[in-house]
Amino acid sequence: MSQAAAAPKVGFVSLGCPKALVDSERILTQLKAEGYEIAPDYNGADVVVVNTCGFIDSARDESMDAIGEAMAENGKVIVTGCLGAEPDVIRNMYPKVAAITGPHQYESVVKAVHDIVLPPHDPFLDLLPPQGIKLTPRHYAYLKISEGCNNTCTFCIIPDLRGKLASRPVGDVLKEAENLVKGGAKELLVISQDTSAYGIDIKYAPSEWRGEQYQARFLDMCKGLGELGAWTRLHYVYPYPHVDEVIPLMAEGKIVPYLDIPFQHASPKVLKSMKRPGNVTKVSERIKKWREICPDLAIRSTFIVGFPGETEADFQLLLDWLTEAQLDRVGCFQYEPVVGAQANDLGLEEVHPDVKEDRWHRFMQHQQAISAARLGRRVGSVIEVIIDEVNGSEAIGRTKYEAPEIDGVVYVKMGKKRTLPGNVIKVYIEEADAYDCWGTAAA
Ligand code: SF4
């Protein structure tokens, strides 16, 4: 019997945000479908793909370092992702990179792999699991619903890198979600650059799923996802008026009561300079209404401090707004002038790095007290927790109010009970700080 030739191996380095992770998963799915194997290290790889991030300077540096390492360790390197939109920058430093493609150019990446090492003659297409290849743990999966963005936030170059909004047909999104759930995903994390803008570009085109027509609308998509019985979590939601429509789905338990809304600031003047929606009073009122409909709604957000022109009064307004909005969790970045961002040309006064640093610390301290108070309300109650990790008699998981990787966790004493990643168990919460909770597995 002749022995089959060993399958060619592709190494993969995936950097950046969850959206880049989804791109990596798609490329890997395609390569795996063609019969390639994924190499666990540089040495065993016939070619290495580096999926880069170009969002801020530190991410660009990390991407350049990763390309350098792959070149030194392997030498046959394909670069893709956001930084791939700037081939000259990469070629200047690494002239021998084999190929460079921009973000979500899956076919070009796969073609570049073919140019270096051909796929096996007879690919075992049926070895591909229906849910594709996932880089996240089996029990949760990112679901990318669109590419690009139609907004023009002045601190951001993502629309230049990733182009205008391009929504996927709703039937495809729901089918993929269904396959992910069939493949073991208990939690779906809906991502895009602007989730609430879903479908605008394709004029809400209807498509079919499970024999029914769905429109490519935020609400319709959420209704479909709510049928799958998994935890569905919405990320990167702009506070458009139609977001109000999904809150009842959260109250009914169809979608998890969690919204990730990057507010970025609260001063109308700064928001205007950022070209973000600026009516914070209205937003506060809506948050109150959302909480009346769905009292356990958790809101996480991100903010930027030290944006050009931000005064102490603007910053104070932001702190006051945080007190009023009572958000559950927030992330905060100090403004970085990304090359190519419109904000650099607004003629606004830069905020001194020491002032940025000081505001960042004050912001974090201010929010910590709010987050601690909100998390503290859980102490003494029994809450469902999805398990991410088990270490002997201890497990680490999250409630519906925490997304993986960005929010805090729940540390669970299991005692004599046993569990596995992906299980949803009941936990008695005994302690909480500004980020995490501690508890015991309940009977
Ligand atoms: S919404 Fe604004 S910050 Fe987000 S990707 Fe679009 S332009 Fe960038």
* Helical percentage: 25-40%
Task: Count helical runs.
Answer: 12
| Shape, per Cα inertia axes | globular
Structural class: alpha/beta
Instruction: Report the uncertain regions.
Output: 122-128
Distance between the first and last residues' Cα: 57 Å
Largest pleated sheet: 5 strands, parallel
Cα-atom Rg, whole angstroms?
23 Å
Strand content: 15-25%
Mean pLDDT: 90
Instruction: Trace the largest sheet across and list its strands.
Output: 2-1-3-4-5
| Strand count | 20
What hetero molecules are bound to the protein chains?
iron/sulfur cluster
Brief rundown of the structure:
With 443 residues, the protein is of the alpha/beta class.
How would you describe what is shown here?
This protein is an alpha/beta fold. The chain has helices spanning 18-33, 57-73, 87-93, 106-116, 158-162, 170-182, 218-225, 247-251, 268-274, 280-293, 312-325, 353-376, and strands spanning 9-14, 37-38, 47-52, 77-81, 99-100, 140-144, 146-147, 166-167, 187-191, 207-209, 212-214, 231-234, 258-260, 298-305, 329-334, 382-391, 394-398, 410-413, 424-432, 437-441. Helix content is 32%, strand content 21%. The longest helix has 24 residues, at 353-376. It is globular and about 60 Å long. The strands form 6 sheets. A 5-stranded parallel β-sheet has the order 2-1-3-4-5, with helices on both faces. The structure holds iron/sulfur cluster. Residues 149, 151, 153, 156, 158-159, 193-194 line the site of iron/sulfur cluster. Iron/sulfur cluster (SF4) is lined by residues 149, 151, 153, 156, 158-159, 193-194.
